Amino acid sequence: MNRYGDGEGMYRTHLFGSPSIIVCFPSISKYIYRSGDLFIVKWPNVDLMGPTSLGAVHGKAHARIRSYLTNAINRPDSLRRIAAHVQPRMVAALQSWAHQGQLKGYSEVKKVTFENIGKLFVSFEPGPGLESMDKLFDGLLKGIRAQPINVPGFAYHYAIQCRKKLEAIFRVELEKKKNGNGVETTNDLMDGLMKIEDDEGNKLSDHEIVENIVALVVGGYDSTALSSTWALYFLAKFPYVLKKLREENIAACKNKKGEFITTEDLSRMKYTANVVEETIRMANISAINFRLATREVEYKGYTIPKDWKVILWIRYLHTNPENFDDPMCFNPDRWNKPAKPGTFQVFGGGSRICPGNMLARLQIALFLHHLSVGYKWELVNPDAEIIYLSHPIPVDGVDIKLSKITDQQ
Ligand code: HEM
User: Fold this and answer.
1) For residue 223, which atom of ligand 1 is closest to its CA?
2) 403: exposed, middle or buried (C-beta count within 10 Å: 0-12, 13-18, 19+)?
3) Is residue 200 part of a domain?
4) Which DSSP letter does residue 48 get?
5) Residue whose CA is closest, atom 12 of ligand 1?
6) How many angstroms is it from 216 CA to the middle of ligand 1?
7) What ipTM was estimated for this complex?
8) Which of 86, 116, 140, 343 is the most exposed, fewest CB within 10 Å of its CB?
9) How do residues 280-295 score in pLDDT, each as one tens digit?
10) Membrane-crossing residues (predicted)?
């Protein structure tokens, strides 16, 4: 960009041996998202994501899984149920953090997020099994954005081993469900995937169900945990934001007699919603988004060749002062008015927009509620360096000292 100027907001380069177009302006990003037939989604290391999973399939196969999933986790009635379901574990986790006093924010947030997601997706109960699965998912996630070198010692090779073990675990769960062996009737995502049918009444194969469940945990687990961890970080750094957040959240539960807050309560909590949006904008969990040109495309006098990778550079959009004033300032009030069109792409766009976006927002908001009402905390290393691979996170894993707020405070 320094060499050629902004142009139409894209430039060409070579990344990891592939010719690629890097897209960094809202207008061209919008065009690419809208032209789903010209630019198909194409994740790297799709074998690790699962070639038959939602993020990898196209056409009717994509539409039928997506429609089920959107109903199950992204509609108001499902979110209402999920809100009631996830809060007890958040409350218990925060109490245990206060007992610990000092803790690694990221690993603790991950534990509680994984417990909730494990229960929602496959009815897993917390326990040692869940902990070892967490490690397997960690290994799998690290491989997804690594060079595909299938040699022992490399992240990609290890990720393949983790994936095999995870598939074996989920296959056992699926068999139990199919045989009705010792599993009470549940209503989790695996049950839902088992029921999906296409126009001819064909169901998903066992293999497709298992691949989709693995992909859903991959998509929904670390992304949500990282976002909540960044909220811990930003709120510690911006105390006046925490003060306003706390006031709104205390007011929201003033007349409650111990019951949890609901999605209806949250819909009235404007500042909390702003804090969620600002957290995910600045966290940039998905810093880039992947597409592939299916044929040669002309755009405003430029040619995008067939089979070139098209990489949407989301972090650039979110940190460009032309899109967001003073972009590195954590300022939830900026969300009092909507972002400029096409500048906010945390969840991607078009027919592929993240189907878990409302679920993620809900979990972050509920976490913020219990955290801000009941606890105070500080960063042990406020100047910790940030690492960016595989995802952005302070290098110390957000080490915090946390305690319960007493009545006198
Ligand atoms: C803050 C948390 C999250 C972030 C930042 C995030 C971000 C994204 C992004 C950028 C995409 C790609 C969209 C595109 O290509 O245009 C995506 C897709 C996807 N996400 Fe999320 N996501 C989050 C939470 C979740 C959750 C909770 C789930 C739960 C199930 C989930 C499941 C998926 C799936 C299945 C896809 C593929 C969708 C498709 O190809 O149709 N994500 N997400």
Assistant:
1) 2
2) middle
3) yes
4) H
5) 348
6) 9
7) 0.99
8) 343
9) 999 999 999 999 999 9
10) none
